[in-house]
């Protein structure tokens, strides 16, 4: 067993992924035995995409957590649920727990209540699309139980509680466990899979893999023997799941109304190359078609396609994109568009005592579904709640696609620029580089293969940080 001085494991402080020097990261080109100090600076966490600067030795991280657990609890830990001087957070995803952490770090005394409609376990959702190939059971994805994390932070946790209504005039929530009063409210409601009401007597068997409970149910049905899985959608989540399931020994068919994979995110050459790599792994891609209905058939599922074809399959997974959860805010009279409108300066909504962060929020016409911007939203909200000012700055999305057969880094152009420029391919030795140029300026890029090493320098150009 390694002593702390010899510890060869490093943990991502953002998502909890562990780099073991003995195992390396072969999918990213790091052979087993690669020391952490020898990893190139342009390497990124394969789970959440942050740089190696956000890693620390595992033994140091464990020591810090132990010291936090031994520290005296603030008086707020003894408080009840909510109250007129409390901050109430609705949602126990990455956004909810992160703002709780940052608010507690800034203010050790203010009462904080976190309300969740599930057990409130702390886990990183991006890990769901790579868990099957890694053989990770649902419990392996949990970094910390809800009660343990709440005790660590000294906050009140109300798990397995649904919020039914929000009364902003009375600063009160109506929940399945009764009313909860707040001084300030943080909505971290997340997003849901885009829903289509498919026909067929097995339509309720379609899995929307957006939380740990859904993964638990899917994993239970997949265990035991190789299965056939049909995925609706060849976007980011669809292609990641296709590779993950195939690597886990299952057969996969992917349906999409577009012409190629990643059709809305990446230029045609990259989508075509990804399709070739996944086809070589056995993925059956059906472009220009989707699911029409799904029915039970002899212990399996019969999928009827929009082109009239049929597929006999064992599982159907919907991966048609995310939609911000705004129903609660809309019923309460808050201003919404695609998401809940929030100020970049403070994350306040149209009600100054209600904040919105994470997948449910919309800032300047943009939604942000990735860990890095969600953490910055949490920082902005926590600062505003404690009288400080740390505005949220828009940055183009940097997306690492978790497809080990073809490493991909994407920085799509802003939606308002899509019609003002075009994709231009650049020759590279191995892989491909595509630049999105508008008005003579680099506004986005799409990299595949060894060209992903250019990500850091290109991102600096897109964000105006280049030398």
How would you describe the overall organization of this protein?
22% of the residues lie in helices and 26% in strands. It has 467 residues and is of the alpha/beta class. It has a five-stranded parallel beta sheet, covered by helices on one side. The chain has a five-stranded parallel beta sheet with strand order 14-21-15-16-17, covered by helices on one side. Helix 2 links the parallel strand 4 (87-90) and strand 5 (112-115). The radius of gyration is 23 Å and the shape is globular. The relative contact order is 0.11.
What does the average pLDDT come to?
89
Low-confidence stretches: 1-5, 71-78
State the secondary-structure class: alpha/beta
Radius of gyration: 23 Å
Q: State the end-to-end distance.
A: 45 Å
Instruction: Give the number of helices.
Output: 10
Strand proportion = 25-35%
Please summarize the sheet with the most strands. 5 strands, parallel
What helical percentage do the residues reach?
10-25%
The gross shape turns out to be globular
The largest beta-sheet arranges its strands as 8-5-4-12-24
* Total beta strands: 30
Quickly list its features.
467 residues, 22% helix, alpha/beta, globular
Topology record:
Layout: E1 9-12, E2 18-20, E3 55-57, H1 58-70, E4 87-90, H2 94-106, E5 112-115, E6 122-123, H3 138-141, E7 142-144, H4 146-153, E8 156-158, E9 163-167, E10 172-175, E11 178-181, E12 184-187, E13 191-193, E14 207-208, H5 212-222, E15 228-232, H6 236-247, E16 251-256, H7 268-280, E17 284-287, E18 291-297, E19 300-305, E20 310-313, E21 315-318, E22 322-324, H8 327-331, E23 340-341, E24 354-356, E25 361-362, H9 371-385, E26 399-401, E27 408-411, E28 422-426, E29 431-438, E30 441-449, H10 455-462
Parallel strand pairs: 4-5, 4-12, 5-8, 12-24, 14-21, 15-16, 15-21, 16-17, 23-25
Antiparallel strand pairs: 1-2, 1-3, 6-7, 9-10, 10-11, 13-22, 18-19, 19-20, 26-27, 27-30, 28-29, 29-30
Helix pairs in contact: 2-9
